[in-house]
Amino acid sequence: MSESITYAAAGVDVEAGDKAVELMKASVARATRPEVLGGLGGFAGMFDASALQGMRRPVLATSTDGVGTKVAVAQAMDVHDTIGHDLVGMVVDDIVVCGAEPLFMTDYIATGRVVPERIAALVSGIAAACETARVALLGGETAEHPGLLAADEYDVAGAATGVVEHEDVLGPQRVRPGDVVLALASSGLHSNGYSLVRAVLASAGWELDRHVDELGRTVGEEILTPTRVYAADLVDLLRTDGVEVHALSHVTGGGLAANLARVLPAGVLARVDRATWTPPPVFDLVGRLGQVPRADLERTLNLGVGFVAVLPGASVDAATTHLQARGIDTWVLGEVHDAASAPTQDGVEIVQGAKGVDGGAVQVVGEHPAGA
């Protein structure tokens, strides 16, 4: 008779999973809110929603995402906490786009082999970013998938829920011709376009530990820079006296033009000028090293613009003061025009209908300043 097969022999280490939970408890405990009920380890996370009773017409907003192939960079460098920041930013910053305050988040980690310290590092990053965003990390799951993933491979995903008063929902219905398009600087590549970036580096034969003078550090350190988490700063901006915001856009997959077009109404065109900013060196490096066409770069990477606010001109100064006090550089990218009379540039693509949204249009014109 053949030997008996245990769960551990099949490649799943329950004790390692339990150790990982113990290691992450302290960091998860800091990512909380007063509305959280119960503690870590329950079958479901619980959130006291009684505060919503004071709202006139509460609208729940939800989002889910991962960080794509950026995990391959983290695994190659054996640095795992920054991926947690990426995950939170990609999820909660989508929620604030509609004006909602993110309330709580859950995460899911799938790995070929549970290494408690690695899982704890991942979750500590998630928890730290949740704390920054004032979001409760309400629960999560770590799944060991031997035979499906290699021992040191993993992937992460997350989901979050927020709430906004119906009358405060942001979006195309508020945008008007004459509104200003305000850019919020990114912290770097964020978490989109890594299949392109990795292909460029591989084609050039560049290793992640290669020091690049123009970056001031190794290429691996540069491209592993965590995604900026904007949520709390933007929620506070929406509550700031003297600031009226009509729409927000998170610049992720698809680039600046496509994501801005998603929050504009039909019948308007936003004209954005490249001359208003210089993309950080990493974007120029990827473009030059891979001879990537500009159109492809702009459809894939954020080029230094991580978020966009569309607001009346009268609110620009107050919004800029608020955001720059929080360490977020801002600048005016352009303006929203009536499409019928917009000053467009012949021969330059007009982006419309991005991500299945039949809304407004965006034209990106001009050239970045010399040296970009």
Automatic annotation (TrEMBL):
It is found in: Cytoplasm. Pathway: Purine metabolism; IMP biosynthesis via de novo pathway; 5-amino-1-(5-phospho-D-ribosyl)imidazole from N(2)-formyl-N(1)-(5-phospho-D-ribosyl)glycinamide: step 2/2. GO terms for cellular component: cytosol. One of its GO terms (biological process) is adenine biosynthetic process. GO terms for molecular function: ATP binding; phosphoribosylamine-glycine ligase activity; phosphoribosylformylglycinamidine cyclo-ligase activity. InterPro entries: PurM-like_C_dom, PurM-like_C_sf, PurM-like_N, PurM-like_N_sf, PurM_cligase. Its EC number is 6.3.3.1. Transmembrane segments: none annotated. It catalyses: 2-formamido-N(1)-(5-O-phospho-beta-D-ribosyl)acetamidine + ATP = 5-amino-1-(5-phospho-beta-D-ribosyl)imidazole + ADP + phosphate + H(+). Residues 59-164 form the PurM-like N-terminal domain. Gene3D superfamilies: PurM-like C-terminal domain, PurM-like, N-terminal domain. Keywords: ATP-binding, Cytoplasm, Ligase, Nucleotide-binding, Purine biosynthesis. Pfam families: AIRS, AIRS_C. Residues 176-339 form the PurM-like C-terminal domain. It is an enzyme of class 6 (ligase). The keyword Nucleotide-binding applies. Belongs to the AIR synthase family. NCBIfam families: purM. This is Phosphoribosylformylglycinamidine cyclo-ligase.
